[in-house]
Design goal:
By secondary structure, the protein is an alpha/beta fold. The protein has 2 domains: about 30-150 and about 245-285, Bacterial extracellular solute-binding protein, family 7 (D-Maltodextrin-Binding Protein, domain 2, 3-Layer(aba) Sandwich), CATH 3.40.190; about 155-240 and about 295-349, Bacterial extracellular solute-binding protein, family 7 (D-Maltodextrin-Binding Protein, domain 2), CATH 3.40.190.170. About 40% of the residues lie in helices and about 15% in strands. The chain is built from 14 helices and 11 strands. The chain has helices spanning about 10-20, 45-60, 85-90, 120-135, 180-185, 200-205, 225, 250-255, 260-265, 275-285, 285-295, 305-315, 315-330, 335-349; strands at about 30-40, 65-70, 95, 145-150, 155-160, 170-175, 190-195, 210-215, 230, 245-250, 300. The strands form 2 sheets. It has a 6-stranded mixed β-sheet, covered by helices on one side. The longest helix has 17 residues, at about 45-60.
Length: about 350
């Protein structure tokens, strides 16, 4: 048994003794420390079920050599619309962001955000990997892409009920991206695209009276408290569309890794995790829905087939708007639409 004559030892001395005797091993500092920045709070389902676990897995798989530290809700400064620039310029190493927050920044990605292209989170996320390989080299050339994915799909969340398409006319509502704004405008809505964090104050002040969102993120912006009516469409297309998320790494941050650690990142990126990412977004709809149902005031409904078809027909004009925008960039919008549909169908079989 080892004896020590000093009656009082500093914490540092105790630690040194324990290390020297093999009772305690010194902590191993990471060789690479990466900062991950995003706009959502840590209580949001995507933070808890994807981003934080991903960071921990990178640390584990690298044997502690890579440490990814998350910074939530724009802790490192700036606005959500600046995240693409932050990671491109090396202000941060990794971001998770909707390119739709910066209209026209990645126009080809918007194909999957058009009304009723999307079917479910798994097929769309898998299809996005194919679409990226074929079409997105130029849009993503300034980044090292880790993952492109979609959520399970948007529905109407409003202060007043929606029982038919005409109920939407004159409403003021928020969408996540340009395609969502076009969709709402086609339905006679006064629409605005704005980042997630602005939703609660806008609803509270009456600047907007509703949103298009999936259930999974809704608790993070208090939809169960700020809205009362949750409306989906009839089968088979119950959701209006989706939003595409980009999980991106700074190119220099990735390039400085040795080959074995690049393999760790690669094994937790792209096709390697696409299916599990899509399945995660399907799974986190349920807890989000439970929170929405926790308030007795909240009502849940589905529009009739007739009214749902009216919405689908009215929003067909969005495709023309999209193709016109793509033409400005010398892009064949119809080809993108055809490919997105075919790629999703491939994974829906």
């Amino acid at each position: 048994m080892i004896k020590y004559s000093a009656k009082i030892l500093t914490l540092g001395a105790v630690f040194a003794i324990l290390v020297g005797t093999g009772i305690c091993k010194p902590l191993k500092s990471a060789e690479f420390n990466f900062r991950m920045h995003t706009f959502i709070p840590p209580v949001a389902n995507p933070a808890k079920t994807f981003l934080a676990p991903w960071a921990k897995k990178i640390n584990k798989d690298s044997g502690g050599r890579i440490n990814v530290k998350p910074f939530w809700a724009m802790q490192l400064g700036g606005k959500p619309t600046q995240l693409l620039d932050q990671v491109r310029d090396g202000v941060v190493d990794i971001v998770w962001i909707l390119p739709g927050f910066t209209t026209g920044r990645m126009p080809k990605i918007e194909t999957f955000e058009l009304p009723f292209i999307h079917k479910d989170a798994v097929s769309t996320t898998l299809a996005l990997q194919d679409f990226q390989a074929k079409h997105l080299g130029d849009e993503l050339k300034e980044y090292h892409p880790l993952m492109l994915h979609a959520h399970e799909g948007e529905l109407f969340m409003t202060k007043k009920p929606i029982t038919k398409m005409s109920d939407l006319k004159g409403r003021k509502m928020r969408a996540a991206n340009r395609s969502g704004v076009w969709l709402l405008q086609a339905l006679g809505v006064d629409a605005i695209a704005t980042p997630l964090g602005r939703i609660p104050p806008m609803l509270a002040k009456g600047t907007i009276t509703g949103v298009m969102l999936p259930y999974e993120i809704s608790p993070a912006v208090k939809m169960h408290e700020l809205t009362s009516y949750f409306t989906e469409l009839a089968e088979p297309d119950t959701r209006l569309g989706t939003a595409v998320f980009t999980f991106l790494m700074n190119k220099k941050s990735y390039a400085k890794l040795p080959a074995d650690l690049k393999k760790v990142i690669d094994a937790n990126s792209g096709r390697s995790i696409a299916r599990s990412v899509g399945e995660n977004w399907q799974a986190i709809e349920a807890p989000g829905l439970r929170v929405m149902k926790s308030k007795k005031k909240n009502k849940f409904s589905r529009l009739s087939v007739e009214e749902s078809m009216k919405i689908k027909k009215a929003t067909a004009v969005v495709y023309d708007q999209f193709k016109a925008e793509m033409k400005k960039h010398n892009i064949n919008g119809q080809e993108l639409i055809n490919d997105a549909r075919a790629m999703i169908a491939k994974y829906r079989k």
